[in-house]
Specification:
12 helices; about 35% helix; Rossmann fold; alpha/beta
Length: about 350
């Protein structure tokens, strides 16, 4: 089957309502990774079981690369765009590989050198300088009051994605990633006062270090490993997601309808912008995709029609181009979480 034919077949299933991501599939692959299974089994888009051998470290790396980095297995989520407009420069697109599966396993790398990381004391100091200052600022007050001034569904938890590692931050990333975490605390505190009940807080970021996790634990934020934060989100959740490297919006669009989402603004993608290209950056040829890592698929655009969109009033320097989406009263009851494939 050609790449074009497979993309068209996938698109026809997707347009008919077949979900890319389900609770059962995410939990299944997470359990196998956690149990250190030597072979990971997962269902492809047709529901057929596929084995994927787990290597301790990627076999294609040079000894120098293996020495420089620590490699960790993780879940690789493929967006609708990646499945319908695959990388033409990728030589590994055979039928034997799970190239067209929405879920696969891959590797994420971390520098073995840890002397440059911020330790727990430095994270605390950075938060006092940037996080606490922001929490006491007019910017924080504006964000909180804008949310509270609207009629929102009941919120019992906050789940954040991709806010960066405060331990790995340097330069301009120190205030940005610190303040993004402060956003969790500022909103949670305001909601506790508004609802007079506890607001549980969670965060998922693959680059967190032990220092990050310990600091967030001190602040009452539980760190979840991928994909448990996705599975934690429900109809009474406020989601925060800022420029993630995975398709957070598309995953949640298949799983649930959160009460509120604060994430990158959803705009209709231009379907004609589907050409991969190469460009020279600092003398090195790089492949440029025609879509972002958290793109706005047709299903995401349909999802947000059930939400009121309001501008996010926080400083764009810290939060980027995010917007706030508040669920309309009837959109949750209309959501169908049927994981089965439609008849084709």
């Amino acid at each position: 089957m050609t790449t074009t034919t497979r993309s068209e077949e996938f698109d026809s299933y997707y347009r008919a309502g077949k979900p890319l991501f389900t609770h059962a599939a995410l939990l299944n692959i997470a359990t196998q990774i956690s149990n250190c299974e030597p072979v990971i089994h997962f269902d492809d888009f047709h529901g057929l079981s596929k084995p994927r051998r787990r290597n301790r470290e990627p076999s294609w790396l040079t000894p120098k690369e293996l020495a420089a980095y620590e490699w960790s297995i993780h879940i690789d989520y493929k967006s609708y765009e990646k499945l319908t407009c695959p990388d033409p420069f990728d030589d590994d697109q055979s039928d034997e590989e799970p190239h067209y599966n929405p879920i696969d396993i891959s590797y994420i790398r971390f520098h073995r050198e840890i002397s440059t990381l911020n330790d727990l004391d430095q994270i605390r100091a950075n938060f006092k300088t940037h996080g606490d200052t922001w929490l006491a600022s007019q910017d924080c007050e504006d964000v909180v009051q804008t949310l509270l001034s609207r009629s929102t569904p009941r919120i019992r938890k906050i789940v954040a994605f991709a806010l960066g590692s405060m331990a790995r931050a340097d330069g301009e990333l120190i205030p940005r990633w610190t303040i993004q975490h402060a956003l969790i605390l500022g909103i949670a505190d305001a909601l506790r006062k508004e609802y007079a009940h506890e607001i549980r807080c969670f965060s998922q970021e693959p680059h967190y270090t032990d220092a990050d996790k310990n600091f967030l634990r001190e602040k009452g934020v539980a760190v979840l490993e991928d994909p448990m934060a996705f599975l934690e989100v429900d109809a009474e959740t406020l989601v925060i997601s800022i420029a993630p490297n995975v398709c957070v919006k598309q995953i949640l669009a298949d799983l649930t309808r959160p009460a509120v989402m604060m994430w990158d603004e959803v705009t209709v993608e231009d379907p004609t912008q589907n050409v991969w290209r190469t460009e020279i950056v600092d003398g090195v040829e790089e492949i440029v995709a025609p879509y972002r890592t958290d793109p706005n698929s047709p299903r995401v655009c349909e999802m947000v029609e059930g939400y009121h969109k309001i501008p996010f009033v926080g400083n764009e320097k810290h939060f980027g181009g995010i917007a706030t989406y508040i669920r309309k009263d009837n959109s949750q009851s209309a959501f169908n979480k049927d994981d089965s494939a439609p008849e084709m």
